[in-house]
Design a protein that fits this description.
The chain is of the alpha+beta class. It has seven helices and 22 strands.
């Protein structure tokens, strides 16, 4: 009898242990499986909603121009200490400027290239040749022959306003046919990594990355106003929201020379000048308190041939001897000239052989003289 009582007690304890450790605490016993609906109700947009005017303009600009933007692959040989001469490949962008297959890009995209390959938007590849280069403006012209290409429309970069919309089309990181959008952030002088100066460079927040170099910067009418050339970077070589483009007017001034001569006939006024400020103007008794005073008109140069005069009286500017008494340049083609940088900007928009109107003071007399620019022999 005692044996059966012990057996019953053991059975009760075992049953209780099983209930509390297995049956009651089991996660599988507490799950309530959901029921499945017959269908899912979704909130969907109405079909056929129209695009707004801004979106449609973005699309139109892209469709109208993307086929004229190309991907440029350049191959060069570089020297490696361990392996000697090794091939190096670079990528950039460019765009078609005429129906003869001329394509403009940056000089640094094709610099030292032994072989250049152009990939069109339809993915067809063609060999290209270098037609002309202009290192000082970071410009180059290459050509693809025997292919029907659609040129882009070149606009005017002389009256750009900070805040106006711009569009960049190119091949960042090799991703062909990429469109980015932004505004003109500023117009300023910038220095490229190789030391070259870009006058009146277009600063933009449109995303520009490696591979965009040489591609077009467009206005809201789809006209090219600049050539994307560099970014402000913290070393990561990616967009920081500050990119720069060469003004298209700078390129247009040299395009004909690059295509027909392979080089740029750099314009020269043929003068040595010093900038004038109000204090110096008062000291010298000049008729204007700004401008460039001609110290010397180079004999036989453009200014000399037009009758402009250099200084005739020796004086000292600090410890530097100068000649005073020459003509004071105050404007060219109606644009005020207050510094040698202003003169350089005017020269960038002209080529040798162009005629310009130079306004000068000769003593108290204000004169306007037409000057045919000469050529500076600095072929690259």
């Amino acid at each position: 009898m005692r044996f059966f009582r012990s057996l019953i007690v053991a059975f009760i304890f075992a049953a209780a242990f099983f209930y509390f450790t297995t049956h009651r605490s089991s996660p599988f016993r507490s799950i309530n499986w959901p029921s499945r609906p017959q269908h899912v109700e979704l909130t969907e947009a109405a079909s056929g909603e129209s695009l707004d005017a801004e979106e449609q303009n973005n699309i139109n600009i892209y469709r109208r121009n993307v086929a004229s933007v190309v991907n440029i692959t350049s191959r060069a040989m570089t020297f490696d200490f361990f392996y000697g001469l090794v091939p190096q490949e670079g990528q950039g962008s460019g765009f078609v400027i005429d129906k003869e297959g001329h394509i403009i890009t940056n000089y640094h995209v094709i610099q030292n290239a032994r072989q250049i390959e152009v990939t069109l938007h339809n993915r067809k590849k063609y060999k290209a040749t270098i037609v002309g280069t202009d290192k000082s403006h970071d410009l180059a012209i290459i050509q693809v022959k025997g292919v029907e290409l659609q040129p882009m429309t070149l606009g005017d970069s002389s009256n750009l306003q900070v805040g106006q919309k711009v569009y960049a089309i190119g091949n960042p990181f090799g991703l062909s046919g990429t469109l980015t959008r932004g505004i003109v952030s500023s117009i300023r002088q910038v220095q490229e990594p190789d030391g070259m100066i870009i006058e009146e460079a277009i600063q933009t927040d449109a995303a520009i990355n490696p591979g965009n170099s040489g591609g077009p910067l467009l206005n809201s009418h789809g006209e090219v106003i600049g050539i994307n050339t560099m970014i402000a970077s913290n070393g990561a070589e990616q967009s920081s929201g500050i990119g720069f483009a060469i003004p298209i007017n700078t390129a247009k001034a040299v395009l004909n020379d690059l295509v027909t001569l392979g080089r740029v006939r750099r314009p020269a006024l043929g003068v040595r000048t010093i900038p004038i400020d109000p204090e110096l103007a008062s000291e010298l008794g000049l008729s204007a308190d700004y401008g460039l005073l001609i110290v010397q008109a180079v004999p036989g140069g453009a200014a000399d041939r037009a009758g402009l005069r250099g200084g005739t009286e020796r004086a000292y500017l600090g410890n530097t001897p100068i000649m005073i008494g020459g003509d004071l340049i105050v404007s060219i083609d109606g644009k005020s000239i207050e510094s040698q940088q202003d003169l350089a900007q005017v020269m960038n928009n002209h080529r040798a052989g162009d005629a310009i109107r130079v306004t000068v003071y000769r003593g108290k007399r204000k004169m306007e003289v037409e000057v045919t620019l000469g050529e500076t022999r600095d072929q690259v």
